[in-house]
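Practice record 12: protein with coenzyme A.
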Amino acid sequence: MVKDGSCKIIRMTEDDLPEVMLIEKASFPAPWTEQAFRDEFVCPFSYPYVAKASDIHPSFVLGYICFWIILDELHLLNLAVHPVYCRQGIGRELLSFALKMGRAAGTQFATLEVRPSNIAAITLYKDAGFIPVGRRPGYYSNSKEDAIIMEYDFLKKVTDTEDMC
Ligand SMILES: CC(C)(COP(=O)(O)OP(=O)(O)OC[C@H]1O[C@@H](n2cnc3c(N)ncnc32)[C@H](O)[C@@H]1OP(=O)(O)O)[C@@H](O)C(=O)NCCC(=O)NCCS
């Protein structure tokens, strides 16, 4: 359904929250609360977006991304895809959307934290051009797992992932 890029990416709204929360709870051991998403809606430097199937009306949430753009940095806060729709290119589309927004805003680098055990996400980020640049010991409070810090350099040439949208 979305392999050919047939999903639309639009700003997340209050109406999306029930579906977003279902995905969030299915995706993370320490999910964000509804209020955490609401805080992003009113944050002036936050960009919460959802991917929806463009060929279905009324459409539903396939996945979402939330990132901050502050001065020369884009920081990725959250990215998840509905488990049923994983491995269909939606995560890559959401990430490429964020990178394109960052480039348009003139950011120089993008950063994120990821669990070392999250092979799916690490593979996605590496494919997009992110590289590991450091580690935050015990970053995840629920499991005390370290975080790998990954960085994307906008000054490099445009990657295939960024090129997708
Ligand atoms: C990580 C996540 C967002 C990926 O979304 P997705 O829509 O399934 O990813 P895509 O289909 O766009 O995959 C793009 C590439 O990522 C890599 N990838 C995705 N899932 C993978 C997996 N389970 N194992 C290995 N590589 C994987 C592959 O390189 C894939 O390309 P390919 O399908 O051509 O081989 C999704 O697995 C998810 O929601 N996970 C739970 C939440 C999460 O961990 N978020 C990240 C927090 S840092």
